[in-house]
Every structure is written in C-alpha cells, then in structure tokens.
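User: I've been trying to design a sequence by hand for this structure and keep getting stuck. Would you show me what you'd pick, starting by listing the structure so we're on the same page?

Assistant: Good idea, let's start from the same input. This is the structure you sent:
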C-alpha cells in the first residue's frame, strides 16, 4: 500500500471519519483488483503499426 494512502487512512481513523475511510478503502480495492492492461494497443496509443 502506498505511503500516502496509509497516511490518509490513519488520519481518517483518528478523526473517525467513516465516509473518508470507506472512500479510501474503495480506492485501495479498486486499484488492487483492476486488471493489468498490457495489451499492444495500450503500449501503442496512436494505433501505429510498426
């Protein structure tokens, strides 16, 4: 987990900010579970064929 996210989560827990905790938790699970996009299309955004 990135340090900036840890810091924000710790701050949200200390303030007992449930909305912020949920938001940060959702962000973490979204980035952790997103598929790895390493297609040739992603590596070549202009669509130029070498």
């Amino acid at each position: 987990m990135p340090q900036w996210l840890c810091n924000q989560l710790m701050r949200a827990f200390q303030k007992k900010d449930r909305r912020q905790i949920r938001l940060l938790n959702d962000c973490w699970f979204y980035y952790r579970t997103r598929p790895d996009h390493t297609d040739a299309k992603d590596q070549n955004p202009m669509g130029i064929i070498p």
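That's my pick for every position. To get oriented when you compare it with your attempt: Helices lie at 3-15, 18-33, 40-43. The chain has three helices and no strands.
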